[in-house]
Structures are given as structure tokens and as C-alpha cells.
């Protein structure tokens, strides 16, 4: 690993650590502070203020960065290595690639925020952001499980599993190219993992163990060789069984 790649790796590692530290802090607040001392999303959707949307969005945005950056690390480092060979530097291109990649998940966090707003209004989630409606959790687990077997899931997953293949087929020159490639890769990862992220609604939005397990599942799913399909299918079966078990 070159000096430039090491700097990029350590920078991304610092972002991941900060994101998880924030999530641990949020979890600590919710499990230790008295309810009178903590902020909680309003149960009535009509009384949400901008600060409520902002805090929920920040939670989801940090969560998406902390959960998805580890699995994108191999793609980012391969891209940085190619940039170093082509441009004799990798920093501006790689950080723009990462910014574009994260932008996809930051936009998805807006969707998750709006979904949570409606789920609180429908009483599907408690003020502590735990699931109150069993059938919502069942539907989410079954949806995530079924999606694991679809051609769309497999197609997006192959793009995430083969960094060199993605870069060879999707390469674009310059800074604009770096941004477009980051958006493309982020979109592929979103197509691959959106249903797994939705599981956070089913297990409790601030369920720290749920975050860790889903992050680990996504990471392993992306690093195993592409000709091994058993892990993704096993995940699908696990989600489906979990859904039926909740019934």
C-alpha cells in the first residue's frame, strides 16, 4: 500500500470510527438516561418540527456511513491505486469518488427519515423507535428475504463484489468522471443493500446489535467470491424464517 493509499485508508477508517462512536453514544443515551432527559421523535406526525426531522436524518445519515463504508473500502482502495498510476495522485479523485458514493446513501437517508416520520404517525414505532406493530416487522423480514433471491439483487451484488471489473467497465476520466463513478457505485450498493437497511425498522432503529450484525452480513456478502451464491441465499432464508417466526 502506497503512502497516498494509506492516507485514504486511515481517513476512511477515522470516518467509520467517528460514525460508530456517534451511534454508540446515541444508544447509550437511550439506554441510560431517564426519558425526561432525552429527545424522542414525536408520536404524532403532525407535530414534528424541523429539529425532529434534522435529528432523525442525522441519525440515519451517520448510520448509513458507518454501516456501508466498511464494505466499500476495497472498491475505494482499488480506485485510489488506479488513480495514482494514471494521474500520479489519488487524493482529489478518490475523495470525490467517496463523496459521490456517500451522497447516494445520504439521499436514501432522506427517504428513511420520511418513512420513520410516517411510521411514528401510524403508531408502528414507539417514541423509543422500537417496532410496535408486529406485522410491519414480518413484512420487512419477508421482503428482505425474498429480495435476496431476485435477479436484481444478484446483478447489483456482482458490481459490488468485483471492484476491478466495475472500474474497467465504468471508468470515466477526470474529476467529473470520479463523481459519476462514485454515484454509479453508490447506486449499485443501494440496489444491493436497501432491503437489509430496512431491517433496522423491524429490529428497532437504534438497536446497536442489529446495526453490527447487518454491517457484518453486508461486508461478508460483498467480499466472498462471486461464484459462491450460498451466503446470499442463506441470508434470504434466515430473513424469511425470522419473519415467519415473528408470526
- SSE order, as H and E? HHHHHHHHH
Average pLDDT confidence is 90
Q: What is the share of helical residues?
A: over 70%
Instruction: Count helical runs.
Output: 9
Q: What coarse outline follows from CA principal-axis ratios?
A: globular
Termini Cα gap = 50 Å
How many domains make up the 3D coordinates?
Answer: 1
Radius of gyration: 19 Å
> Which residues form runs of ≥5 with pLDDT under 50?
none
Commentary on this structure:
The chain has 247 residues and is mainly alpha-helical. The protein has one domain (3-246). The protein has nine helices and no strands. The protein has helices spanning 3-32, 50-87, 91-121, 134-147, 151-161, 163-170, 174-203, 208-223, 230-246. Helix 4 runs antiparallel to helix 9. The radius of gyration is 19 Å and the shape is globular. Keywords: Membrane, Transmembrane, Transmembrane helix. Pfam families: PpoB2. InterPro entries: PpoB2-like (IPR018688). The chain crosses the membrane at residues 7-27, 47-80, 92-112, 132-149, 199-220, 226-246.
